[in-house]
From TrEMBL, chain A:
One of its GO terms (molecular function) is ATP hydrolysis activity. This is ABC transporter domain-containing protein. Residues 9-242 form the ABC transporter domain. It comes from Acidithiobacillus marinus. The lineage of its organism: Bacteria, Pseudomonadati, Pseudomonadota, Acidithiobacillia, Acidithiobacillales. It holds the Pfam family ABC_tran. It comes from the Bacteria. One of its GO terms (cellular component) is membrane. Keywords: ATP-binding, Cell membrane, Ion transport, Iron, Iron transport, Membrane, Nucleotide-binding, Transport. The keyword Membrane applies.
Automatic annotation (TrEMBL), chain B:
This is ABC transmembrane type-1 domain-containing protein. The keyword RNA-binding does not apply. The lineage of its organism: Bacteria, Pseudomonadati, Pseudomonadota, Acidithiobacillia, Acidithiobacillales. It comes from Acidithiobacillus marinus. One of its GO terms (cellular component) is plasma membrane. Keywords: Cell inner membrane, Cell membrane, Membrane, Transmembrane, Transmembrane helix, Transport. It holds the Pfam family BPD_transp_1. PROSITE patterns: ABC_TM1.
Length: 360, 538
C-alpha cells in the first residue's frame, strides 16, 4: 500500500450527479506520484466527468478527492480549479485563438503569478518539436498534432502536481496519434509527472498506462495493471475492452482458491477463476481466441462447428458453435467451415460470476 | 464571490429595466377607483367605445401588415433561394435596407411621395393622387409596416430554406415524388413554421408601433392602442390609470403572441448560410427590384430630395435647390444639431453599458437551470412589450412620489428607456457570442490557474469581442431611431433626433427634419464604421 505522500491522486467513494442522474457512483482509485495511468471506457461511461471532477470543473455530490495528499474536494471543502495546481490537455487542444502560441504556453505562469520565463517556454516548445518561428503565430496556423503538443507544453510548464488528459489523441489522424503517443510516453516518464489520461482506445491505454481503469456506466469496474486487466478482467465489459472475447455460460462443479472446475461439452475443465466465484453453481467463462487449441487438438476432444472464418493477423480467426449453441472464437491455420475438434489450453480462460449479457 | 456579484448585478439591471416599469403598469391599472374598487380602469375598457375602436384599429393595422408582408417576404425568399439574380449579395443588402429605416421615416417619406402635389405626381404626372387614399387608410398603415418588416420575414424564411436538409428533398425525388410533391414533403413543413413565426413577429411589431399610426392614423380616421396610450399620458386630462389599463391589454397581446412565437423559432436563429449559388436568372430581378424601389429607393430619394428643396410644391428643379436646411442644422444655436449630439451621446452610452449588462446576463443564461431560464425570459420580455407601454411604466415608476432618485426629468431616463427596449437584441448578440466559445477554452483558463474574473476578462471578452461590437452597433442604431419612449420621456427643453424629425414633420417644417434624417443616417454610419474598424482587430 503506498504511503500518503506517494499518492499522486486519491479518490474515495466519489459520486457525481448531473441533472438528477448519477453519472459517477462510488468511484475509488489511488494513483502513485509520478506514474502515468489511463482510464478506459465507452462514450457516456463517465470518464470525462471523472476528469472534470478531479479538475474542479464539476462539484461532486459525495466523496473525497486528494491531490498529492491535499484534500481538494470533500463535503464543504471544494477548491476551485485555479487553486488545484493541475494541468490539463483537452481533446481539441483548447488553445486560445486570440493569443500567440507562446502566450498560450506562458498563460499558466502568468495566471498563477509565477516568474514568466520565456526561455523555458521556448525550450519546452522546442522539445515539443514546434519550430521557434511558430511561437509568435496563432494556434490555427499549426497542424492538429502541433496544436496538441502546444497544449501539452501549456499543461506542464507550471510544474503541476498532476496532468489530466481528456482524450488528447482521439481527434488526430492515425499516424500523428501513434507519433504523439510515443512522445507522451517518453516525456512523462522522463519528467516524472503524474498523469491521468482518459481514452476509449484500449491500445492507447495499454501502451501508456502503468495502471488502467475501466469505467462502465459510472462505475469503476477495475483499476489494475494492463496485464491483469487483460488476463483477469473483473467483468465482461472489462474483458471486451481488452480485445476479442466470448462469454460462455457454464455449470460450476467445484470452485477452489483461484480455480474452478467446469462442466462443458461433456468434459471437465479446470480454469483460473475470480475469487468472487465462491460457491456459485453457474459461471461465465471468458474465452479469448488464443485460449483455445484447434490444430493440435486430440481426437478425444469435443467437436464444434466452424460457422465463419476470416483471415486475421497471419492466421484464420474462426467463429465456432458448440453443441449447446454457444459461440466462441479460436485461431487456426485452416479456414474450412464444418466440424473441428478443439480444446482449452492449460491455465487459459477466465471464470467470473455469472454475467447476464449477450454472447458477442 | 465573482458569481454572486454577477447574479446580483443582473438581478438589479433586469429589475430596474424590465420589472420596475411593468410592475408599475400593473399596479396603476389595478388601482382602486373612486368607489374603492380595484381594477376599475381595466373594467371600464369593456364599455369604452374609444378603446374598442382603438383595439379594432390595432388589430386591423397588424392584420394588414401580416397580409402584405408574408407574401412579399415569401416571394423574395423563394426567388433569392431558387432563382437568384446575378450579384446576389448586392440585392440581398437592398432587400434588408427597409428594416434599417425607421418606420416613421418611411411613412413620412411616403406621405411626401403621394398626393396631388406629391413627388410621384410631380415626376410622372399620375398615380400620386390615387395612392394617397390608400396610404391614409388602415391598409396603407399596414403596408408601411409591411415594407419595414418584410426583410424580417425574408430572413426567417431564407434561414428555414437554408437550414433545411437537401437530402430530404433528394430522398423524396429518388423514391418517386414529383418536384412539387418533394417540395411539399421536404421543404414546406419547415417553411410553414417559419411563415407562422414571421406572421406572429410582424403582428407583434405592428401592434406595438407608434410612429406610423401617429403620422397616418389621424388622416385615415382610425385609432390604435399605442397612440391612445400616448394621448392618455400627454393630452389633458391626463389619465394614467386608463393609459396603464390600455397598456396592459396591449402588453398582454404582445406577450401572448410572443409565447406563441418563441417555440417556433427555437431552431431558427435567422442566420442565412452561404451555400453553393443556384444558377442565376435575369427575370428574378424584376419583382425584387419592385420591392427595392418601393421599400428603399423611393423613400430614401424622397427624404434626400426634400432635404435639398426650398419648397416642396415647387418640385424637382434647379432653381428649387438649396443647402439651407443643412446650414440650419449645423448653425450654432440649432436645436436640430443639439438633438443629434444628444442622441449620439445617449446611444453610445447605452451601446456600451447595454452590451456589458447583456454579457453578464448571457453568462447566467448559459449556465442554464431555472435562474438561467428566468433571466432569459426577463431579458427578452421587452421584445413583447410595446415601447409606449414601457414608457408609461417608466413614467409611473421614476416619477412616483416615493422615488427620490433624480432620474425622471434627466436625460438619463432616455438611456434607461433605450437600454430596456434594446436589451433583447443585446442579449441575443451576447448569447450568440458565448455560444460560439467552446466551454473548454474557459475551463482551460480556470484549470491553468486563472480566477473567474481573469478568465472572463482575458479569455471570454476577447473571444466574444466581435459579437459584442456587433451587438453594440445594433443597440446604437436602434437607440438612435427610438421614437415613442423619447417623445414621452424626454426632459423639458431637450430633444433627440427622432423627436426632432417627428416634431418638425408634424409642424410642417419638413425640410429641416429630412436634412437631420440624412445627417443622422450618415453620421451614425460613419461613427459605427469607424468604431467597428477601430474595435475589431483582424
Amino acid at each position: 500500500m503506498p504511503s500518503e505522500l506517494s499518492e499522486g491522486l486519491q479518490i474515495q467513494s466519489l459520486r457525481v450527479e448531473l441533472g438528477g442522474r448519477a453519472v459517477l457512483a462510488d468511484v475509488n482509485l489511488c494513483q502513485e506520484t509520478g506514474t502515468y495511468a489511463c482510464l478506459l471506457g465507452e462514450s457516456g461511461s463517465g470518464k470525462s466527468t471523472l476528469l472534470a471532477t478531479i479538475a474542479g470543473l464539476i462539484r461532486p455530490q459525495q466523496g473525497k478527492v486528494s491531490i498529492h495528499g491535499q484534500v481538494v474536494s470533500k463535503d464543504k471543502t471544494f477548491l476551485p480549479p485555479e487553486r488545484r495546481e493541475i494541468g490539463m490537455v483537452f481533446q481539441d487542444a483548447a488553445l486560445w485563438p486570440h493569443m500567440s502560441i507562446l502566450d498560450n504556453v506562458l498563460y499558466p505562469l502568468r495566471a498563477r503569478r509565477l516568474a514568466v520565463e520565456k526561455s523555458r517556454a521556448m525550450a519546452l516548445l522546442e522539445r515539443m518539436a514546434i519550430p521557434t518561428a511558430a511561437a509568435r503565430r496563432r494556434p490555427h496556423e499549426l497542424s492538429g498534432g502541433q496544436q496538441q503538443r502546444v497544449a501539452i507544453a501549456r499543461a506542464i510548464i507550471a510544474k503541476p502536481r498532476i496532468v489530466l488528459l481528456d482524450e488528447p489523441l482521439s481527434a488526430l489522424d492515425h499516424g500523428v496519434r501513434e507519433n504523439l503517443r510515443e512522445f507522451l510516453h517518453g516525456l512523462f516518464a522522463e519528467e516524472g509527472i503524474t498523469a491521468l489520461h482518459v481514452t476509449h482506445d484500449p491500445g492507447e491505454a495499454f501502451y501508456l498506462g502503468r495502471r488502467v481503469g475501466v469505467l462502465n456506466g459510472g462505475h469503476l469496474e477495475q483499476w489494475d495493471t494492463p496485464e491483469r486487466l487483460y488476463q483477469q478482467p473483473a467483468s465482461l465489459v472489462v474483458a471486451r475492452l481488452g480485445g476479442s472475447v466470448r462469454a460462455i455460460q457454464v455449470p460450476v462443479l467445484e470452485s477452489r482458491d483461484k480455480e474452478a472446475v467446469l462442466q462443458w461439452e461433456g468434459q471437465r475443465w479446470t480454469v483460473p477463476a475470480a475469487s468472487e466465484l465462491q460457491s456459485a453453481s453457474q459461471a461465465t467463462l471468458l474465452l479469448r481466441p488464443s485460449d483455445l487449441e484447434l490444430d493440435e487438438a486430440p481426437t478425444a476432444a469435443p467437436e464444434a462447428q466452424v460457422r465463419h472464418a476470416h483471415w486475421h493477423d497471419g492466421q484464420y480467426l474462426l467463429t465456432l458453435q458448440a453443441s449447446d449453441g454457444q459461440e466462441f472464437l479460436a485461431y487456426s491455420r485452416q479456414g474450412d467451415l464444418g466440424p473441428r475438434r478443439w480444446q482449452l489450453r492449460r491455465g487459459q480462460g477466465w471464470c467470473i460470476p455469472l454475467q447476464s449479457s449477450a454472447n458477442h | 464571490m465573482t458569481r454572486v456579484v454577477n447574479h446580483l448585478l443582473v438581478y438589479l439591471i433586469l429589475g430596474v429595466l424590465v420589472l420596475a416599469p411593468l410592475g408599475a403598469i400593473v399596479y396603476e391599472a389595478l388601482q382602486p377607483g373612486a368607489g374603492h374598487q380595484h381594477g376599475v380602469a381595466l373594467l371600464q375598457l369593456g364599455v369604452d367605445q374609444h378603446f374598442l375602436d382603438s383595439l379594432s384599429g390595432t388589430l386591423g393595422m397588424a392584420g394588414f401588415a401580416v397580409l402584405f408582408a408574408l407574401p412579399m417576404g415569401f416571394a423574395l425568399a423563394m426567388l433569392m433561394y431558387y432563382v437568384p439574380p446575378r450579384w446576389t449579395p448586392f440585392w440581398e443588402a437592398l432587400i434588408l435596407i427597409p428594416f434599417l429605416i425607421p418606420p416613421y421615416l418611411t411613412a413620412e417619406a411616403w406621405s411626401l411621395l403621394v398626393g396631388p402635389v406629391g413627388m410621384i405626381e410631380q415626376v410622372i404626372g399620375f398615380l400620386g393622387s390615387s395612392l394617397e387614399g390608400f396610404l391614409f387608410s388602415l391598409a396603407g398603415m399596414g403596408m408601411m409596416m409591411a415594407l419595414h418588416l418584410t426583410p424580417l420575414v425574408y430572413i426567417l424564411l431564407r434561414a428555414a430554406l437554408d437550414n433545411g436538409n437537401p437530402r430530404l428533398l433528394q430522398a423524396a425525388r429518388v423514391h418517386g415524388a414529383s418536384a412539387l410533391a418533394a417540395f411539399r414533403l421536404g421543404i414546406l413543413p419547415t417553411l410553414l413554421t417559419a411563415l407562422a413565426a414571421a406572421g406572429l413577429l410582424v403582428f407583434m411589431d405592428t401592434s406595438a408601433e407608434f410612429g406610423v399610426p401617429a403620422l397616418l392614423a389621424g388622416y385615415a380616421g382610425v385609432q390604435v392602442l399605442s397612440t391612445s396610450i400616448e394621448g392618455a399620458t400627454n393630452v389633458w386630462p391626463v389619465n394614467l390609470p386608463m393609459a396603464s389599463a390600455i397598456g396592459l391589454v396591449l402588453c398582454a397581446m404582445g406577450v401572448l403572441v410572443w409565447f406563441l412565437y418563441r417555440p417556433l423559432v427555437r431552431n431558427n436563429e435567422g442566420q442565412i448560410q452561404r451555400r453553393a449559388p443556384a444558377r442565376s436568372v435575369w427575370w428574378s430581378i424584376l419583382p425584387i427590384a419592385v420591392f427595392v424601389l418601393v421599400g428603399t429607393i423611393m423613400p430614401v430619394l424622397a427624404v434626400l430630395a426634400i432635404s435639398l428643396e426650398k419648397a416642396m410644391t415647387a418640385g424637382l428643379q434647379a432653381s428649387n435647390f438649396t443647402w439651407e436646411h443643412y446650414h440650419h442644422i449645423f448653425s450654432n444655436s440649432s436645436s436640430g444639431f443639439a438633438a443629434l449630439l444628444t442622441s449620439l451621446k445617449i446611444s453610445a452610452l447605452v451601446a456600451v453599458f447595454g452590451m456589458a449588462s447583456a454579457l453578464l446576463a448571457a453568462n447566467l443564461v448559459r449556465r442554464g437551470g431555472r435562474i438561467g431560464a428566468l433571466v432569459d425570459l426577463l431579458g427578452t420580455l421587452p421584445m413583447a412589450v410595446p415601447g409606449v407601454v414601457l414608457a408609461v411604466g417608466m413614467i409611473l415608476f421614476w416619477n412616483a412620489p416615493w422615488n427620490q432618485l433624480p432620474v425622471f426629468g434627466h436625460p438619463i431616463i432616455l438611456a434607461v428607456a433605450y437600454a430596456t427596449v434594446t436589451f433583447p437584441f443585446a442579449l441575443r448578440y451576447a448569447r450568440t457570442g458565448l455560444a460560439q466559445i467552446p466551454p473548454r477554452l474557459e475551463q482551460a483558463g480556470r484549470v491553468h490557474g486563472a480566477s473567474p474574473l481573469r478568465t472572463a476578462l482575458g479569455i471570454q471578452v476577447p473571444l466574444v469581442w466581435p459579437m459584442l461590437v456587433g451587438g453594440a452597433t445594433v443597440v446604437f442604431a436602434l437607440s438612435m431611431r427610438e421614437l415613442v419612449a423619447s417623445l414621452m420621456l424626454q426632459p423639458a427643453g431637450m430633444q433627440v433626433i427622432s423627436t426632432y424629425i417627428y416634431g418638425n414633420f408634424r409642424q410642417g417644417v419638413i425640410g429641416n427634419g429630412m436634412a437631420l434624417s440624412v445627417i443622422g443616417i450618415f453620421s451614425s454610419a460613419l461613427i459605427l464604421g469607424l468604431a467597428r474598424k477601430a474595435l475589431i482587430r483582424r
